[in-house]
Amino acid sequence: METKENNGNVQVMQNGMDNAVESYNPHMELPHYKFPTLDLLKDYDNKSVVIDNEQQEFIKQRIKEVFLDFRIEIDSISVSVGPTFSLYVISLARGVRMSTVNSLKNEIDFNLAISDIYIKRIIVPLPGTVTIGIEIPNVKPSIVSMKTVLSSREYVESQMELPVSIGHTVSNNVYMFDLTKLPHLLIAGGLGQGKSSVLNTIITSFIYKKHPSELKLVLIDFQMTEFGIIYSKLNNHFLAKMPGIDDAIVSDPISIINTLKSLCIEVDNRYKFLKDAHVRSIVEYNNLIKEHKLSPEQGHHYQPYIVVVIDEYSNLMKNNGMDFETPLVYIAQRSRVVGVHLIISTWVSNTDTITSIIKANFPARMAFRVKREVESRNILDMPGANSLIGKGDVLFSWGFDTVRLQCAYVDNSEIETICQYIGEQDGFKEPFLLPNIGEDLTQQNI
CB of 301 within 8 A of CB of 266? Predict the structure, then answer.
């Protein structure tokens, strides 16, 4: 085998197939690590969505009658039954204008309510179609268990870099997304509507799919109500922290801001690695590491994904304002290609918290139930979140698409069991260390 130096990088040259070097496997850093198993998660009594055909026919007939009262002819009605609500898809007769239905939404809602049919949302038209959607809560809602979505074929066979199996659609299909494609996520909604639960769902999706050498979590919990006790058991497996901080789950404002500044340096350092390696993404860079084409002697090492999860960031915006927002936005603007991704959550949905610069850098958004339409518009740039049922019912908006989902539910006892299972295994000597920020950050423009 020969090596040659090329622009500061040591590349391995293979002399024929007999001398081929086995590729580097990051899993070998913890070779005996066992992924958590599905039996750590709970089964629920409701195995499937309950379909009440008699109720569906009654609702269909009543919709037709109400529309005819307003001289709107319907061609057909079909139904998609989800865990907590059903979507009635209405095809209008030829010549009927969508604008006519749109102008009568409140009257349609009122007249259906007379028959005890309570609409949560009328969608005119359904995105990408020439149909109308009416969402009506199910009489007997179903729980979407975490075990159900993680055992699905979509999740098991997924090749996504950072897969999130979030829950079920109105058609009762598993819905997934890759965080690396978003690349950052804003979660907002009222208290008790499911934000904390969905954070647990996202983290659980990661740790069931990723080895500790491939993923590090920076958990920021200002109120120390969600992450502190449960996830501390992942200290030497999945957590990352700044040197000098005792607890890997950060809670006090100064440590939070310093951790974000440390992440800014981490992002800049990774850009230097990519530049030296002449690649444009962390995936390409890590592939070179696996192929032994970059040398540790030159400072090159496998770079795990870093996911920063901030719970109730509104408290930080209220008390620390620009000190918090400036490094957060710096990371959001520069970190996509270097494998650092942000998830932030807030129960305050006003413009002082979800600012224009936050919205510009968090194109993917989840909106749970809010009280007012103005809050929904501030989160999603559209109404709808004010009409949700609650308890995990969410609108997920990314790009040009908005989809309504029922998030999978994972309770604290399940999280504790999973973290206990991982924590009892041999881990790294300490959490993944972020760069020391030093005394002068002026060169980073942070």
Answer: no
Angle between helices 282-290 and 253-277 (to 10 degrees): 60
Is 50 exceeded by the pLDDT of residue 435?
yes
Share of the chain above pLDDT 90, in %: 68
- Summarize pLDDT for 382-407 with one digit per residue, the tens: 999 998 988 899 999 998 889 999 99
Q: What is the pLDDT of residue 14?
A: 40
3-state DSSP call for residue 445?
coil
Distance CA 93, CA 382 (A): 28
Inter-residue contact 339 to 279 (CB < 8 Å): no
For residue 2, what are the CA distances in angstroms to 14, 21, 262? 7, 11, 38
Of 342, 355, 352, 387, residue with least CA distance to 368: 387
Q: Which of 337, 175, 210, 199 is nearest to 268 (CA)?
A: 337
Helices (H), 335-399: 356-361, 373-380
Q: CA-CA distance, 227 to 310, in Å (whole number)?
A: 10
Whether the per-residue pLDDT at 27 is higher than 90: the answer is: yes
Q: What is the DSSP letter of 259?
A: H
219 phi and psi, to 5 degrees?
Answer: -105, 120
- Classified as helix, coil or strand, 68 is helix
133, pLDDT greater than 60: yes
pLDDT of residue 278: 96
CA separation for the pair 94, 307 (Å, rounded)? 50
The Cβ of residue 189 has, within 10 Å, a number of other Cβ atoms equal to: 27
**Model confidence at 446, in pLDDT bands (50, 70, 90)?**
low
Instruction: Name the pTM for this structure.
Output: 0.87
C-alpha 394/C-alpha 104 separation (Å) is: 25
Positive or negative, the Cα torsion across 225, 336, 209, 154? positive
> Both ends of the chain: CA-CA distance in Å?
45
* Separation of alpha carbons 88 and 136, rounded Å: 8
Sheet holding 121-123, edge to edge: 74-81, 85-92, 132-137, 121-123
Which pLDDT does position 83 carry in this prediction?
87
How far apart (Å, rounded) are the C-alpha atoms in residues 267 and 280?
14
Whole-number Å distance between alpha carbons of 268 and 437: 12
